[in-house]
Design goal:
With 331 residues, the protein is α/β, with parallel strands linked by helices. The protein is 34% helix and 17% strand. It has a domain of 228 residues: TIM Barrel (Alpha-Beta Barrel). A twelve-stranded mixed beta sheet has the order 7-8-9-6-5-4-3-2-1-10-11-12. Strand 10 and strand 11 form a beta hairpin. Bound molecules: S-adenosylmethionine and iron/sulfur cluster. The site of S-adenosylmethionine has 21 residues, from strand 3, strand 5 and helix 12.
Length: 331
């Protein structure tokens, strides 16, 4: 890479390269996970304020030029956004964008898995907090266990890979199921990621937080796991079986954060670019996109936004700070 090319790449005030974008295509969801979206929540964005696929494509083309090469589509539940495979195909065609992935609750995945794969989607993350039907109903507020499992298996059959299972571990809710979940993931070739509940919105704050460090030590010994580096690992730290066939990730923003390696920003459905999940700094790109800004103006605004990226979240010091819920930031 030449000096000119590398100075064009995005880096923040702390020298962190920004090469990953999480793109929320909707803030709506068919589930109401207890730690995420409040029951009866109705503070959704008006559809008129959602970025269109054309607007998303224009903006991400500029990110691609600035060295962002991975995009993860999220939400809310992204599969609620109509014609999502078309967006995947459009993003995959952009220069610089090497990978488009998806985070989903999988309730609709059986209908879309093949189209998503054909459109160029690679890896998927599926939220699954329990293997017990009643528990899933209690956590998500819906009787959706069968649909999630059927979506997950459709994803596997379609060849979406790797598949990571995201489990938010909560004390007294599902912490007795970690070993069952590990066995399930080993059987199916999924990567399990255990996540600490974050104090995002009142729902996140009222989740039964569990420190995952002791869990990590126990599982490392029980399964004879060793430290591993997984491509696209982000803030997760991984352990791996010695034959490499099973990986276990830990996302521990409270007990051990990894803000110093943060490489990402988040684009909300309304065009707000959030600099950190645990802070409020953001820049609104919608007015600019709707007033026909030129590419160099968009590029300048992206650089201004990246300057705002804070050093770290303050989930421990200021747990009451973030009032927006996870689904509206693009978790
Ligand atoms: N609906 C999709 C899903 O559930 O995968 C994508 C959006 S969801 C907001 C993305 C991830 O955020 C999920 O894995 C979910 O478990 C996680 N999440 C939501 N609220 C959280 C919280 N308060 N603490 C930790 N993780 C949370
Ligand atoms: Fe919906 Fe995902 Fe939030 Fe659950 S975690 S309520 S599936 S957006």
């Amino acid at each position: 890479m030449t000096t000119d090319q590398s100075s064009a790449l995005l880096a923040d005030r702390f020298g962190r390269r920004i090469d990953y974008l999480r793109l929320s295509v909707t803030d709506r969801c068919d589930l109401r996970c207890s730690y995420c979206m409040p029951k009866g929540f109705c503070g959704f964005e008006e559809p008129a304020r959602w970025l269109s696929f054309d607007e998303i494509e224009r903006l991400i083309a500029v990110f691609g030029k600035l060295g962002v090469h991975r995009v993860r589509i999220t939400g809310g539940e992204p599969l609620l956004r109509r014609d999502l495979p078309q967006l995947v195909a459009r993003l995959r065609r952009l220069r610089g964008i090497e990978e488009v992935s998806l985070s989903t609750n999988a309730t609709q995945l059986d209908r879309h898995a093949n189209d998503l794969k054909a459109a160029g989607l690679t890896r998927i993350n599926v939220s699954l907090d329990s293997l017990q039907r009643e528990r899933i109903e209690r956590i998500t507020g819906r009787d959706c266990y069968d649909r999630i499992i059927s979506g997950l298996m459709a994803g596997k059959r379609a060849g979406l890979a790797p598949i990571k299972i995201n489990m938010v571990v909560m004390r007294g809710v599902n912490d007795d199921e970690i070993d069952d979940m590990a066995a399930f993931c080993m059987d199916h070739g999924f990567i399990l990621r255990l996540i600490e509940a974050m104090p995002i919105g009142d729902t996140g704050r009222s989740a039964q937080y569990l420190d995952l460090q002791p869990v990590r030590e126990r599982l490392q010994q029980r399964f004879g796991l060793v430290e591993a580096l997984i491509p696209g690992g982000g803030p997760a730290r991984y352990l791996c079986s010695s034959d490499g066939r099973f990986s276990l990730g830990f996302i521990t923003p409270l007990s051990q954060h990894f803000c110093e390696t943060c490489n990402r920003v988040r684009l909300g459905v309304d065009g707000s670019l959030y600099m950190c999940l645990g802070q409020d700094e953001k820049l609104d790109f919608r007015p600019m996109l709707r007033s026909g800004a030129a590419e160099d103006q968009i590029e300048a605004a992206i650089r201004t936004a990246i300057e705002l990226k804070p050093q770290r979240h303050e989930f421990r010091e200021l747990p009451g700070k973030i009032i927006r819920v996870m689904s509206s930031t693009g978790g």
